[in-house]
Structures are given as C-alpha cells and as structure tokens.
Amino acid sequence: MGNNHFSTIFGALVIAAALAGPANAADEIEGKLQSCNACHGQNGQPISANIPIIWGQTTAFLVKQLHDYRSGDRDNAIMSSLAKTLKQEELRPAAVYLTGKTWPAHAGAAAATPQPNGMAVCRACHQENFTGGLPAPRLAGQSYEYLVDQMRRFATEERSNNADMVKIMQALSAGEREAMARYLAGL
C-alpha cells in the first residue's frame, strides 16, 4: 500500500512539474519582453509615433522581424540588441505572447481619408481591411509617421528584409506613399 501511494504521489509531482514547465516558460518570456514596454508602451501604445504598435500584430510577422533583428537582416541598434536576448526557440513564443495582446484603440483617430489609388496591391498580403495576415503585418491603425518612414526605407533600400516591398515601394512616388500611409493610419 505504501508503494502504491508513493507511485501516485510521484506521478502527481511529475505531472505537476510538466504542467508548470510551460507556465514557467511563458512567465520567462513575459519577463524578457517587459523591456519592450519602455518604447512600445505598457498599454500597447508606443511612446512615439515613430515606433510601431506590436500588441496584436500578426505572429508570423513578429517572428520574422525578431529573427531579422537577431540575424542583422534588419538594422536597428536597439531592436537588434534586444532581439539577441531571446534564444531562437523563444522567438515564436515571444511573438505569440505579443499577438495575444489587444491592439490598442486609436487615441483620437485621424479623420478617414479617401482610399488612394494603388491600395489593391497592398491587400494581396495585408488583407482586405489591412489587418494583416500570413505573412504580412497589420497596417491599419499604425501611425502615419511610422508607416511613411518604413515605406521610404523600403523605397531607398535602407530596409531590405522584404524584396517584394522594396520593389513595390520603389514603384511609388513619395506622394503616393504619403497618401497610403495617411489612409492606413486613419483606419
């Protein structure tokens, strides 16, 4: 009888430890991502219009960006150093954690502007309402400043971690990119 209780107790402890493992891993990821709040905001609202919203962003996009910052395929001194604090196997759990957060509501959303020409090509990846999808990020509701800057960076090849975006942005004038950014920020 004593052996039977020992086996039951031991089995229960093994199961409890196994179940606690993922919770501890999630807590560890959450702890590592606390530094993101300094710029991206504790409520998901970035401290500057030049910093993107990452709460509620698409998982595939976040995994790729974290990977690209770690590998040097996307250049930003702060983000590269922070991404390197994550192990390769932590990139997806980190992205899933951020995706699970609620996209912040507009703080005084811009008045809707008419949809500019050329937005159809964007829908192919960014989806009908520009809320993102595999593999593209959500654009609707990002700040104008961030969007227009990233579009310019793709056009000038300062940002080259997506060859399709480089070609698309190079085919547009600065004015067309500005109109697209203004429209997307107002959604």
Overview of the structural elements:
By secondary structure, the chain is mainly alpha-helical. The protein is 56% helix and 0% strand. The protein has one domain: Orthogonal Bundle (Cytochrome Bc1 Complex, Chain D, domain 2). It is built from 9 helices and no strands. The protein is globular. The termini are far apart.
Briefly, what is this?
The protein is mainly α. The protein contains nine helices and no strands.
Number of domains: 1
CATH superfamily: Cytochrome c-like domain
The structural class is mainly alpha
Shape: globular
Q: Residue share in helices? A: 55-70%
Main sheet: strands, sense, barrel: none
Strand content: under 5%
Please report the number of helical segments: 9
State the CATH architecture. Answer: Orthogonal Bundle
- Give the radius of gyration: 21 Å
CATH topology: Cytochrome Bc1 Complex, Chain D, domain 2
- List the secondary-structure elements in sequence, H or E: HHHHHHHHH
The count of β-strands is: 0
End-to-end CA span? 67 Å
**Average pLDDT metric:** 87
CATH class: Mainly Alpha
Low-confidence stretches: 8-21
